[in-house]
Amino acid sequence: MEGERPHDREWMRRALALAPRGWGRTAPNPMVGCVIVRDGEVVGEGWHTEYGQPHAEVEALRAAGGRAAGATAYVTLEPCAHHGKTPPCALALRDAGITRVVFAAADPNPKAAGGATVLRESGIEAVGPAYEAAARDLDPVFFHAHTPEGARRPFVALKLALSLDARIADRERRSVWITGPEARAEVHRLRAGFDAVAVGIGTALADDPRLTARGDLIPRVPPARVVFDGALRLPPGSHLARTARETPVIAVADERASAEAAAALEGAGVRVLRAGRGLERALESLREAGVRSMFVEGGAGIAGALLRARLVDRLYLFYAPVLLGPDALSPFAALESPPIDAAPRFRRVDTSVFGADTLVTLARE
Asked: Would you state the pLDDT for residue 177?
């Protein structure tokens, strides 16, 4: 890459590692990390901690103080050039005496973009976009939101807790605690980073779930709970309906839903979206309702439907070290069987271990 110097990748990796510390707290702003290096030494680092608070560059400049003069700043996103809730970061870097900026990805938000131009016009060397794939993998919801597809439907992440033979429930259709407590804690952390947590009506009826983000990470805005419920079978006495005034619940219905069922749920505080038939229309209705991202937790029906329609942007597959056999429930049983060269493909983003379980994170190709 033109303008790249030794150790640039090393310092950018550090910036990319800092950015996710804002998970669940920065949306709709991006997660951003920044590292300031002078004479081969880190003199300041920071990340965007919360929506409305100083950006990563400002936090890193505060930590660096006067040592920022003559230094290089490594930032996971092009420094902003606009006056929003905070002043432009490009000007803050210029005024602190930064002489070189390496940024991983260009800002896709037209309101904030242009920082690289501001830097270059100020005589500062601006190198980038330099590590765009890594930046997009870090915060795919933000980048999706600034695409034509993202304006039409939410970013869809599908989480599945699977046996080694890719089953989500045993032959009696019992799925409780396939994975261990460490994996379940990670699921709660993941929920905190999405606008909504979703299930199909089958799971809502069978499990009466809460679908809240519970754990050490408290989301800035608790995710809404979404039920794909064409005929509005969710009982007004369910946990979701009873708590709808505390944390929003959205029931996505179609023409099968009766006015009486809608009135009963709306009386409990549930928001009913009449989306018409089809997952694509349901997702469009959710996006119109302000849902930018959705963490889908099953069950097999909604998981298979989303995969079949090729509407899944990211897969979180938690594998437990157990075998359930061919009669157990598979979320993939209803998928079509295309030729291998036409099959939907996913790219591995990360592999992590949580207790006895393994999480494989995949992005849609």
From this structure: 77
Q: Which of 195, 206, 236 is nearest to 302 (CA)?
A: 206
Q: Give the distance from CA 319 to its chain's centroid.
A: 20
pTM above 0.90, yes or no: yes
DSSP string, 268-303: TTPEEEE--SSHHHHHHHHHHTT--EEEE---HHHH
Strand intervals (E) in 163-263: 196-200, 224-228, 249-253
pLDDT at 337: 86
Q: Which of 57, 78, 186, 297 is catalytic?
A: 57
Whether residue 299 has a cis bond before it, omega within 30° of 0: yes
The sign one gets for the Cα dihedral 73, 76, 81, 84 is negative
Residue type, 151: A
**What are 229-257's pLDDT values in tens digits?**
999 999 999 999 999 999 999 999 999 99
C-alpha to C-alpha distance for 273 and 287, rounded to whole angstroms: 11
Distances (CA, A) of 317 to 160, 168, 320, 353: 5, 11, 10, 11
pLDDT of residue 181: 95
Quick check: is 365 catalytic? Answer: no
